[in-house]
Amino acid sequence: MIDRIPFPAPEITTSEKLSSSGVLVVFSTQSSSGKVEVDRVSDLDSSLKTVLTQLIESTEIEGKTGEIVTVGTGNPATPMMVVVGLGDPTELTRGRVIEAASSVVRVLNKKPRQEISFLVGDSIATANHDGLVIGAITACEGQHLYQSEPGTHVPSKFTFIGVSEQAAVCGEQLGSSINVTRRLVNEPPTIMNPTEFADQAAAMAKKEGLDCEVWDEARLDKEGCRAILAVGRASTSPPRLVILKHNGGGSEPPIALVGKGVTFDSGGLSIKPSEGMVDMKCDMAGAATVVGVMRAIAKSGLKRNVIGLCGLAENMISGDAYKLGDVIETRSGKTIEILNTDAEGRVVLADTLDVAVQHKPTAIVDLATLTGACMVALGNEVAGLMTNDDALCDDITEAAMSEDEPVWKLPMFSLYDEKVKSKVADIKNVGEGRWGGAITAAKFLENFVGETPWVHIDIAGPAFVDSPKPHRDAGATGVMVRSLTKWLSSQA
User: Fold this and answer.
1) Which residues contact 118 (CB under 8 A, 6 or more apart)?
2) Which is the catalytic residue, given 346, 419, 443, 486?
């Protein structure tokens, strides 16, 4: 079998002064009046200044957002310069900074590079300097894990001139954690089954100083996690529950992050068509996001207690598969009528959320690739938020918007409660037909959080994408790792 490509780990360095480099990246802007400027042009020697002036005068460089111009300089010290447009500097957001850095690295990493240097000036706010590092690192990870001749090459070294060491460290910690999430999701499902996911999460926890428990099928049975066991029992890869703990806040109660980890979803007896099943390795993106966030906060030394829980199962078909019409008693004691085995993620989360509640958290945030209905409502680039606590939801929304990861809150009116009530059990695992499917799924989950402030994030749309963009490959995106790390940091 072809070995997967190594996890990207370029050296990250900082400097105050420009030195010789194989590739130099500089940033250009275009003001609202149309004036084009290049950051820190005074740091460049006269030959490079002349080249830039000529390219600006000929409109080859316009400073527009997304513009990337490669220049062969003829200068032995800096033989290649790349000019990246940022647009109007007064409108430059954090997300655009990350995308700019990622886009240029994705252009450059088509060939082997020893070093790529970024010359950073006043156009990019100091608070967003770490975003340059995030963008550069995430550009090095993609879905080409098993190509015998990968078309992407990780540079040996990134140097950021004008960026503090602290910003570089923070950017590396977060960027590499996003890549951990993406790598987990992009792995083939036969490899990244529940046991392998649990093993990799445990290995990460040991390396980063997190406490970790892994519940195997015997422990799940002892704990009464009958819902997780029901979803996973048709698979030859048994289910798991992973509990990661970051103890940075002393004796305070924790914040809980909960992730849906269906490592492959065939739909069960309610089988998916082939075209709907081909990307179902991504159905564990919620759990992978939890792992990425927990790694990021462990590396940063966050002064809060955070617990991350990943409910892991593979939804397959066999003579032992759970069936339509079954009634499952969950860990909490609530009973579920199964009317569609392809609505399995919420069933797994029912037990996982109950374990989270047991730890008496101040808040619960769950993440799941839960419903196609959320994509119908919001498209494939916006995550849906549903909550029992508007203040908590507003805080998470603020963090997400500051990271340019768009989210939108959907209503949770009590009238939706009736739509998940069952005639033979306490609740049923699907609502009434097609309508309001994202909300009825959230209403189902709400039954398992009690009075704990809770936000459900449906990431079915933005977690995994079919087509690449200039700043990222197709496949897993690592969405919400930045946002939730930002939100947790704001709670410290």
Assistant:
1) 25, 101, 132, 136, 158, 159, 160, 161, 163
2) 346
CA nearest neighbour of 115 among 24, 17, 5: 24
Long-range own/partner contacts, residues 414-419 (CB < 8 A, 24 or more apart): 416/440, 416/443, 417/443, 419/443
Q: What gap in Å lies between CA 88 and CA 33, rounded to an integer?
A: 9
Looking only at the bridges linking them, the beta strands covering 115-119 and 157-161 are: parallel
Q: What is the pLDDT of residue 433?
A: 78
- Please pick, among 4, 49, 272, 409, the residue that the annotation labels catalytic: 272
Closest by alpha carbon to 445, among 415, 412, 423, 488?
412
Neighbours of 411 (CB within 10 A): 10
For 465-488, b where at least 16 C-beta lie within 10 A, e where not — what string?
A: beeeeebbbebbbbbbbbbbbbbb
Read off the tokens for 94.
């954090």
Residues 157-205: pLDDT tens digits? 999 999 999 999 999 999 999 999 999 999 999 999 999 999 999 999 9
Task: Determine whether 272 is an active site residue.
Answer: yes
Residues 6 or more apart whose CB falls under 8 angstroms from that of 313 comprise: 194, 228, 231, 232, 235, 239, 240, 261, 262, 263, 344, 348
* CA gap 455, 365 in Å, rounded: 5
Q: How far is CA 323 from the centre of its chain?
A: 32
Residue with tokens 């289910």: 239
For 487, residues 6+ apart whose C-beta sits below 8 A from its C-beta are 395, 396, 399, 400
Q: Is the pTM of this model over 0.90?
A: yes
pLDDT digits (tens, 9 = 90+) for 56-83: 999 999 999 999 999 988 878 788 999 9
Place of tokens 């993620």: 345
- Could you tell me if 393 and 387 are in contact, meaning their C-beta atoms sit under 8 angstroms apart? yes
